[in-house]
Amino acid sequence: MNFPYSVTVTASRPAGTDRHGDPLLAATHTVEGCAWAPRSSAEQHDTGNSVIVGRTLYAPAGADISPVDTVTFPDGSRWQVEGDVGDWTSPFTGWAAGIEVALRRVSG
């Protein structure tokens, strides 16, 4: 999977928590060749049928992103991985298209 206008994101993984329960970062690394799209919910709201609830990150196959990571985009926005990382690998050919990651905004 190659995106002509890809972005590079930074993934941060906690090593545990401090005495206040806040995560302690163990390591950060960059993931190149990513793309993203708004992620919406199909719930009914006063303003319409759906609301944007996060982002979906598309990253190259084998990208080191886990369910406990925080992802930072080039604009400085921070997003928490929500749930498991989806691996798009064909069961027929073994071709690995990449991974799909649901993200939600981290405030503060």
What does this entry look like structurally?
The protein is an all-beta fold and 108 residues long. It has one domain (7-105): Thrombin, subunit H, CATH 2.40.10.270. 0% of the residues lie in helices and 56% in strands. The protein contains no helices and 7 strands. It has strands spanning 7-17, 23-41, 51-59, 70-72, 78-81, 86-89, 96-105. Strands 1-2-3-7-5-4 form a 6-stranded antiparallel β-barrel. It is globular. The model has no long low-confidence stretch (mean pLDDT 87).
Summarize the structure.
With 108 residues, the protein is mainly β. The chain has strands spanning 7-17, 23-41, 51-59, 70-72, 78-81, 86-89, 96-105.
Shape: globular
According to DSSP, the number of beta strands is 7
Main sheet attributes: strand count, strand direction, barrel closure: 6 strands, antiparallel, barrel
Q: How far apart lie the N and C ends? A: 33 Å
Give unreliable regions as ranges: none
Instruction: Provide the structure class.
Output: mainly beta
Fold topology:
Layout: E1 7-17, E2 23-41, E3 51-59, E4 70-72, E5 78-81, E6 86-89, E7 96-105
Features:
single chain, 108 residues, mainly beta, Thrombin, subunit H, 6-stranded antiparallel β-barrel, 7 strands, 0% helix
